[in-house]
Specification:
Layout (H helix, E strand, L loop, with lengths): L2 E5 L5 H10 L3 E5 L3 H9 L3 E2 L3 H6 L3 E4 L4 H15 L5 E4 L5 H13 L3 E4 L2 E2 L1 H7 L2 E6 L5 H8 L3 E8 L3 H29 L4 H8 L7 H4 L23 H18 L4 H15 L15
Parallel strand pairs: 1-2, 1-4, 2-3, 4-5, 5-6, 8-9
Antiparallel strand pairs: 7-8
Helix pairs in contact: 1-6, 4-5, 8-11, 8-12, 11-12
The structure holds nicotinamide-adenine-dinucleotide.
The site of nicotinamide-adenine-dinucleotide (NAD) has 25 residues, from helix 4 and helix 6.
Enzyme class: oxidoreductase
Pathway: Amino-acid degradation; L-valine degradation
Protein name: 3-hydroxyisobutyrate dehydrogenase
């Protein structure tokens, strides 16, 4: 039986670890929060006593942590000193490209195959096992990375070498922020012009304004019943997470010399949203500021 160490059982990791267990794998679960570990055990995982305990027994090590400093710290202190020879190491967190490359270099030097594999899809897709993974790894390791991620995934796509998964994720989420703000201001203007939200949705979702922020995550309540707008913008994908991703986009743009006027403006708007309580609301709640 394949043994998986799963470290980081938060909003995303909890459903992801549970889907690994549902696929018949032994999942050794660890989080700094005992409540998160208890929830994982209810969902078919085994409680590990520490990160080292989980990692030292695993064929595959999966991490789903908040940011680059957590991933670098855990790899240095726990993953690399304790992983079994031949273990496959995959980080699914959204982190900066430089940290992802640093982690990959450390893994290479220690003789491990590794990948950065951030996800798109949010908590609903994490629970349903339908995330999209964007992978940075050596081409010859991609099939084993795909197999490792399969119980959690509807699509696993190779973006390129180490760090490319994070680059794809950062670009994707900058586009998501821009389309969400555009969708919000459009629905607000439609309202001012006397259009009914459902009626405008029915038209625009069949016309050239159609986009994911509208049709899968509509920021006005009604047209998409599963969207956070129908539950007072409870996340979902928190404003703080979107702001984090936009800051990664700003850093990446500066480092690469990319010109991102809309991305920069989106970052300013999400900063203001978060400063006024939007950090713990879903990112689509930015509509309330317009
Ligand atoms: P979260 O804060 O809910 O979960 C992170 C978990 O990591 C927490 O339970 C925390 O206790 C644990 N943790 C932190 N440091 C640890 C350590 N050293 N050892 C063990 N556990 C540790 O965050 P989340 O929403 O699950 O997001 C995780 C990652 O996924 C982030 O990088 C985020 O950007 C990305 N992401 C989130 C979403 C979303 O919709 N929430 C969507 C796509 C990607």
């Amino acid at each position: 039986m394949t043994t998986v160490a799963f470290i980081g059982l938060g909003n995303m990791g909890s459903g992801m670890a549970s889907n690994q267990a549902k696929a018949g794998r032994q999942v050794l679960a660890f989080d700094l929060s005992p409540d998160a570990v208890a929830r994982a055990v209810e969902n078919g995982c085994e409680a590990a006593t520490s990160a080292a305990d989980a990692i030292s027994r695993a064929d595959i090590v999966l991490t789903m942590l908040p940011a680059g400093k957590h991933v670098c710290g855990l790899y240095e202190a726990e993953v690399l000193p304790n992983a079994k020879s031949g273990a496959l190491l995959i980080d699914c967190s959204t982190i900066d490209v430089e940290s992802a490359k640093t982690v990959a270099n450390m893994c290479q030097e220690a003789g491990f195959n590794s990948a950065d594999a951030p996800v798109s899809g949010g908590t609903a897709a994490a629970d349903a096992g339908t995330l999209a993974f964007m992978v940075g790894c050596k081409e010859e390791n991609f099939t084993s990375v795909q197999e490792a991620l399969e119980p959690m995934s509807k699509a696993t796509l190779l973006a390129g070498s180490f760090g490319a998964g994070q680059a794809a994720k950062i670009c994707n989420n900058m586009l998501l922020a821009i389309t969400m703000i555009g969708t919000c201001e459009t629905f607000k203007m439609a309202e001012k012009l006397g259009l009914n939200a459902q009626n405008f949705f029915d038209i625009s979702s069949q016309a050239s304004g159609q986009n994911w922020s509208m049709t899968s995550y509509c920021p006005v309540p009604g047209p998409v019943p599963a969207a956070p707008s129908n539950r007072d913008y409870q996340p979902g994908f928190a404003g703080a997470m979107m702001l984090k991703d936009l800051k990664l986009a700003l850093e990446s743009a500066e480092a690469s010399g990319a010109n991102i006027p809309f991305g920069s403006h989106a970052a300013e708007m999400y900063q203001a949203f978060c400063d006024n309580g939007g950090d713990v609301k879903d990112f689509s709640g930015i509509i309330e500021t317009l």
